[in-house]
């Protein structure tokens, strides 16, 4: 049975791969699981039919037979638990993987989103630059911790796991920005993630839809 | 074997129960699992010994034999998966529980933390009031979605699960504030959570330490 994801029909990031369906696509590509995508307009996201699947009216969702799942972290965890390749069997390694999955979404991404939110809401406001500096300082502390924890390892717990899908996807939000480039080990970690064929396929798939929908030149 | 948590020796919330060890205590109380607590000073949190357990130098951690775990969501999920009472056996109900666990920490709490961060960092700044209004408006949208999803149910998926521990703990951060009180169903949901004997015991345990350490009158 082929799982069905939902994704933005018109991703606000214009195909840069930052919409969260890319994270689920990446997980499915890593485990070799084909999938289908149901694309939704912004209006459809907020309609009762979709809210019955996703209470906050967001993407992605994941349907497979009578299983309906939402929240990217929960979906990626489900994929990792039901396919080989993304979740170590060793009890402690599995625990660390799940801890890093929550950490990516709860302890790193919110600090990046606060910066994005400041860019979006406070640009042009008198307080914008001060707010941004504050938020960036807080993110630097977190990224220093992450850098120290990664150390010389290729992946968060050594081998590649579902946690790296989420953490690399979070770091993609600051790709090319000083806060990442000033930490070469983290930048190299992200580059390793992006270089994986499964990531490349997931990125290409979301971009292909965007370009087909909006024209390659848009 | 008795699990060992870490908690603040001097909780910054002065025993209000908002430090995240309370969430883990609550889960352990619900399943009837005794535990011990190792209290850490702010300096100890940032030392290598603790960072080896928790890369971001935070509490709580959870150690049981050779298992070492961190991130509140991962710890509560582990407790729910290894004890009866917090995780439904039905595959779909389990999936929904895990989705709501991630939702509490990734889709609701960050919006509340942004308000707390604005209070803390921007108080007295010229932009403080504007920022606060923006952040509160965004939280209202999320809480309306949550209110609609909860509907007339007692708990998020009907029966009480680990997801309610996390969601009620997140909502405790806005207890008594207009953003919660204007949504009576959510306020009643939180009150049901607080009324559970297991929550009461977890709250009392963290307060007891705070008072013993700092004097009941502080």
Task: Walk me through what this model shows.
2 copies of one chain form a homodimer. Chain A is an alpha+beta fold and 218 residues long. Helix content of chain A is 59%, strand content 8%. Chain A has 10 helices and 4 strands, in the order E-H-E-H-H-E-E-H-H-H-H-H-H-H. Chain A has helices at residues 21-31, 42-45, 48-51, 72-82, 91-122, 128-150, 162-171, 178-181, 184-195, 197-214, and strands at residues 4-8, 36-40, 61-64, 67-70. A 4-stranded mixed beta sheet of chain A has the order 2-1-3-4. In chain A, strand 1 (4-8), helix 1 and strand 2 (36-40) form a beta-alpha-beta unit. In chain A, helix 1 (21-31) packs across helix 10 (197-214). The model of chain A has no long low-confidence stretch (mean pLDDT 93). At the A-B interface, strand 4, helix 4, helix 5 and helix 6 of A face strand 4, helix 4, helix 5 and helix 6 of B.
Secondary-structure topology with pairs:
The structure is a homodimer.
Chain A: E1 4-8, H1 21-31, E2 36-40, H2 42-45, H3 48-51, E3 61-64, E4 67-70, H4 72-82, H5 91-122, H6 128-150, H7 162-171, H8 178-181, H9 184-195, H10 197-214
Parallel strand pairs in A: 1-2
Antiparallel strand pairs in A: 1-3, 3-4
- Fraction in helix of chain A: 55-70%
Sheet of most strands of chain A: 4 strands, mixed
Mean pLDDT of chain A: 93
Number of helices in the DSSP assignment of chain A: 10
Proportion of strand residues of chain A:
5-15%
What's the CATH topology name of the largest domain in chain A?
Answer: Glutathione S-transferase Yfyf (Class Pi), Chain A, domain 2
In CATH terms, what is the architecture of the largest domain in chain A?
A: Up-down Bundle
């Amino acid at each position: 049975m082929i799982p069905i994801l939902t994704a933005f029909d018109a991703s606000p990031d214009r195909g840069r791969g930052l919409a969260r369906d890319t994270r689920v696509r990446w997980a499915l590509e890593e485990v070799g699981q084909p999938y289908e995508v149901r694309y939704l307009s912004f209006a459809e996201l907020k309609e009762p039919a979709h809210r019955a699947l996703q209470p906050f009216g967001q993407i992605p969702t994941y349907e497979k037979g009578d299983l309906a799942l939402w929240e990217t972290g929960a979906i990626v965890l489900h994929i990792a638990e039901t396919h080989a390749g993304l979740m170590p069997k060793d009890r402690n390694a599995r625990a660390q993987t799940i801890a890093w999955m929550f950490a990516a979404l709860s302890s790193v991404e919110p600090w990046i989103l606060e910066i994005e939110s400041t860019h979006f809401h406070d640009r042009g406001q008198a307080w914008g630059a001060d707010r941004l500096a504050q938020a960036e300082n807080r993110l630097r502390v977190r990224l220093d911790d992450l850098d120290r924890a990664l150390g010389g390892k290729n992946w968060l717990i050594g081998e590649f796991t579902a946690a790296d899908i989420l953490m690399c996807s979070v770091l993609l939000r600051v790709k090319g920005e000083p806060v990442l480039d000033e930490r070469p080990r983290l930048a190299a970690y992200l580059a390793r993630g992006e270089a994986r064929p499964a990531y490349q396929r997931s990125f290409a798939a979301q971009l292909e839809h965007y370009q087909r929908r909006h024209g390659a030149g848009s």
